[in-house]
Input
Amino acid sequence: MDVIIRNVPSKSYREFKSRAARVGMRLGDALKEAMEGWASANEEQVGLLPHDQNDDAFRKMKPNLEKKYRGKHIAIANGQLVGVADSLERLASELRRKKIRRCRTVHLTIDESGEGGEWLWGSIGHEIAQTTIEP
Amino acid sequence: MGFYRTRDCANYDRTVKPNRPTLKATAETFITRTRISFEAPIDTGFSGYILLPQDQYAKLSESELLSDYFLTYSTVMGPVQMRRSPVILEINGNRVSSFVETPVAGVGRTLIGRRILQGLRVALLGPEGKACFLEGER
Output
């Protein structure tokens, strides 16, 4: 397919075109390779935003959800409540049935939010010590 | 205390000095049953579950907890918030419902923390360079 991209900074465009020419590539081929490389490099990070619309939706729904579904496992996707079940296994099978492959979940009984304890960075200290001692 | 018998011993990781004890584990997601096997160093200084590098965590994050339920750990570098996803963890033939974690900021590393260790009977045999599961006494 053909695409038109507007508002590309002229400096970036010139530099990209010149680098493509230096390795004997046509602009279109270089752009295609760059797009595929970027998509591949970011594939694993999809969905790894620390905060998304599901968090916002949950905060709005939280008082009602806690009242209505206390003790249940719930799933939220695309800002909507998409599943409620007694166990994670049952929730997962409900999500599979609905063909939902990615969502955010919570168990509305266990309040494990907040402090997790400590992480003494023992392993990092160990490796620093190793590089100091070893010749 | 009584007597325990060692079984299913794993060799210490000898690529680092001093060698470090590790355990083999497999984590499986609830929805798509995606499985990742890893050998994780035992870290008694980490009070959490299974810590993973961000790229491995991403493969297991399909039902990640809402961010209100992420845990924050105190470290010598200051507080570190961890994202958290439920998984079925398989260690030493036992399957338990647990969590994998990775730092919200930073790449992370592979570790087994105390929330997992407290459910295991493990002996660290330093001179032999083996981490062994124990059976016998209840």
About this structure: Chain B touches chain A through 47 residues (CB under 8 Å). The helical segments of chain B are 54-59, 114-117. The radius of gyration of chain B is 15 Å. The first strand of chain B starts at residue 4 and ends at 11.
